[in-house]
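Usage example:
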Amino acid sequence: MDSAVSRRSNIKIAVGAIVCEESTLKGHITIGSRTVVHPRASIIAEAGPIIIGEGNIVEEMAVIANRLPAGAPEPASTPVMIIGNFNVFETDSRCEALKVGDNNILEMKASVSREVELTNGCVVGAACSLTEPETVSENTIIFGSQCQRREMNDKPYPQVGQIDYLTRVFPNYHHLRKPNMKIVKEPAI
Amino acid sequence: MAYLFQPDYVRYVCSCGSVKPVSKIYFCRHCLKVRCGYCVCHEVDSHYCSNCMENLPSPEVRLKKNKCSNCFECPCCFQTLSTRAAPAPVRAGGNPSVEDTKSLAKPPPKKVYYLSCSFCRWTSRDAGIPDQFVATGGWPEQENPHLARIVALLEYHKILASRERQQSERKKFHPKRTYMQFEKFAMSSVMVRKRAGLCPLPQSQQSDYPQPAVASEEVEELSPDIFTQPLDITKITTLEQRLKHPDVQAEEINQLRPQHKQFLMKRSQRCRVCEHNVCKPEYSPQSIKFKIQLAAFYHIPEVRIVTCEPLRIGQTSELLLKLCNPTQHQTQIMLFPLSTSITPTTVTAAGTKEVDRENMQLGCESPNLLPSLVRQITVTEDPKPLKLSPQAEIILPESILILPPRDDAAEYDDTGDTHNFQDDPKLVVWRKGNKAVIRLLVKPNEDEQIEEGKEITVGFVMQYGYVNTIATLEHKEPQKLDLKIKLFLSIGKLVGST
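Running the assembly step on the lines above writes:
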């Protein structure tokens, strides 16, 4: 994992994804097309591989980690972290959830722990944290200092405009990691 | 700014007896006394909406029930709602036969608007409110379910008020009546009639009296499924959300409706004794400046704690205080024990004289420009007794500390201090510009049983020279005064005893 060659072989980046060179990527990671990884974002696959779908935005200082809690016994099977499509991980958010569905938003400084499962269309508000094991039902929003919950009428819209803009702008200002994976199937939108 | 967040270590005693940090007190330049929020008159200057900055006269505000007609508040998290535009949904099945083909090819971009909260993502669509075709206004108003009752009560009280006014006017203009002789002996006309053996006058307008509210013991039965249905807390409103709108008190999230934003107000504070303003903001809601701001930190020397050695019972510890003169005049500071009287004194040729500004001011014409009928009657209260008692003895210096006036340019002057003050080297540790650090000794009281870890306060009276630049009839020249103020300092926790 130390040499650049072995690191590169562990990371699969689909054509059309924008992954900045300054981001921290460790371990076996698959990144789907149209996903944007900002500089200084971290994706750390220590305990097992991380598979990220299409059209996600991982902003700066956001951490996506597949990491065993300290002192936990080695599991029998390798835990795989799967992140769906069109999720947004905003600045300084932290996601350790093994299952993240589609159209979720983790706002600034939000934190989701390993035993939590995010379904679809959930919003974890700024500075809210989920630490207890649970499955967050669809279209739930968690907001405020008391981590109030409410069910939304509609899931948040995918940030297509933002993804397009970043895809256009990032190559002008940042070094990017080269995509090394052909798209197997057509992107579903 | 740092004042707003730090705990109050140094507190000044207001003339009303409350104890506050220097950032929260005022200094009335006319009474030469410290005032605080508890002992001034608060007057509403203007109402405004904090979102759209609209400024309205107060009768209109009363009509609008103190709420802005344009801005809305999220019923869920109480943030301001913003209007969002969305493309209008394409109406399926519409047959545009009448329209010409050109408009068919390029339909006018129609937009619909809905309200949305950027914090908790609540939208007016969540509540089932139909989208609007105009950006502002047109939102359905939520009706108060008790509107009829409230209107009836309001009407009745209006009638009562007018009747009362009529009565008082009648008394004013026709005081000479036959019953007048009895009124001398505090007897009302009703009592006179009773005495004369007549039945009381029939109440003519009794019929418009609204039905009185009846307290009922019967409570609506809970539906039986409350015990069987699983509770979904995400669909139920919180207590805060209900109490924010007491007229409706919606129980379910989807019954919440956007609420009009409450107006904020600008207020001015007026000294109750001399009726001069101590604080008056500028009228415009956009402005955050003040026309008059007699805050104490512009007039009274500021005291800050630099360090204090660990406090032990029976041992003297060193306490370093930084004093700062905020005024444009040189001041001399002396410290006295707490028991000293705090009446201001002035030094004249004849000797020290006590100044009593309050009595002097009462004879003057009030500066309050409102007609005497309208304006509030000022109520002055006696100062409350002070309950704080110091837990440590403080050894005070006998020498005078002189602080030069504030000079903003001196901060950028690196040439060093040119002042030649004959400082007591035991007292003054450091000096720069209008600031000086002094050294005092404190000793926690031995006789009192103070537990370890308890906060120790000390107190003293600070006398400072103040130059009164307000010209009055008697004093055309700036007048030099020695004012005194009580201070309490929290200097730290007791570490232990020797």
